[in-house]
Write a structure and sequence with these properties.
It contains 10 helices and 12 strands. The protein has helices spanning 16-27, 43-52, 65-71, 77-82, 102-114, 130-141, 154-164, 223-230, 240-255, 262-270; strands at residues 2-8, 31-37, 55-60, 74-75, 87-90, 96-99, 122-126, 146-150, 170-173, 183-188, 206-214, 235-237. The longest helix is centred in the last third of the chain and has 16 residues, at 240-255. The protein is globular, with a radius of gyration of 19 Å. Helix 1 packs across helix 9 (240-255). Helix 8 (223-230) links the parallel strand 11 (206-214) and strand 12 (235-237). The protein has 2 domains: 2-100 and 242-270, 3-Layer(aba) Sandwich (Rossmann fold); 103-238, Rossmann fold (3-Layer(aba) Sandwich), CATH 3.40.50. The structure holds 2'-monophosphoadenosine-5'-diphosphate. 2'-monophosphoadenosine-5'-diphosphate binds at residues 127-132, 151-153, 156, 190-192, 195, 197, 199. The site of 2'-monophosphoadenosine-5'-diphosphate has 16 residues, from helix 6.
């Protein structure tokens, strides 16, 4: 039996064991996936202990994604640009590969489940924290015609832009700097809603037929989604699909097969 786990602190809230158990059932794989409460200051030791006990890979969540980046012997380009690792793979030769599947999960969810192609689209990314940083390279790989990073603190948006400027047409600034410009896809990667606040998006940002995507999810529409529908977005989606898609990407990295995310998203919605 192959062993996997998610490590974080806190960890009780994690849906990952449920997701990976559902994926394993799709293929009849003999594996276990557990949740580990990582001690603050003891992350690397906990990872080594799990590996020594036969672990094949781990997901990493808050607050250990940067420590996981430092622990990995090799990084994918995505993880390097995200400056965060959410998936570790323990290779046969003893080395640890660090990957970040969050951004690619977002892109797969937008283009797959939601059904909106990103190529040649005008994309507005709201926020410049860890979540936005992780999304940047996967978004640019789809070759949008333009990607704008808008953030409450413009200097942080500019710093992100500078990191990925070589990968496409990227602009950065504050929310008001892009007033009057229209976008086909608007992605909320701020944590504003977690504190009950609205993102001060300029009026008129939504082009005809546009999609508003919130990385956050909850029961029903998030405040960002409701605001988007009132302001001209044609379609909205929340981040539950991204959650399942990033897990599916980790499963693929470990197991070499791609789970069907649709029944698993349905299962979570029903729960
Ligand atoms: P995460 O890992 O979720 O991205 P983070 O790194 O703390 O979390 O980043 C939070 C993001 O949400 C930042 O872009 C932050 O803007 P600042 O860089 O100006 O701090 C943004 N954010 C948080 N609260 C916000 C609010 N009330 N309005 C607008 N943006 C907000």
């Amino acid at each position: 039996t192959d062993r996997y786990a998610v490590i974080g602190n806190p960890i009780a809230q994690t849906k990952s064991p449920k997701l990976h158990a559902a994926f394993a059932r799709q293929f009849g794989h003999d594996m276990t996936y557990e949740a580990i409460l990582g001690p603050i200051g003891g992350f690397a030791e906990a990872v080594r202990a799990f590996r020594a006990a036969g672990g094949k890979g781990m997901n990493v969540t808050v607050p250990f994604k940067v420590e996981a980046l430092e622990l990995a012997d090799r990084l994918t380009e995505r993880a390097r640009l995200a400056q965060a690792v959410n998936t570790l793979k323990f290779d046969e030769d003893g080395s640890i590969l660090g990957e970040n599947t969050d951004g690619v999960g977002l892109v797969r969810d937008i283009q797959g489940r939601v059904g909106v192609a990103l190529r040649a689209k005008r994309v507005l990314l709201l926020g410049a924290g860890g979540a936005a940083r992780g999304a940047l390279l996967p978004l640019l790989e789809e070759q949008p015609s333009r990607l704008v990073i808008a953030n409450r603190t413009p200097a942080k948006a500019e710093a992100l832009r500078a990191r990925v400027a070589a990968y496409g047409n990227v602009a950065a600034g504050g929310f008001a700097d892009f007033a009057g410009e229209q976008f086909d896809v608007v992605i909320n990667a701020t944590s504003a809603s977690l504190s009950g606040e609205d993102v001060p998006l300029p009026v008129g940002s939504y082009a005809a037929g546009s999609l508003a995507y919130d990385l956050v999810y909850g029961k029903g529409n998030t405040p960002f989604m409701s605001h988007a529908l009132e302001n001209g977005a044609a379609q909205v989606a929340d981040g539950l699909g991204m959650l399942v898609a990033q897990a599916a990407e980790a499963f693929y990295l470990w197991r070499g097969v791609r789970p069907d995310v649709t029944p698993v998203i349905d299962m979570l919605r029903a729960a």
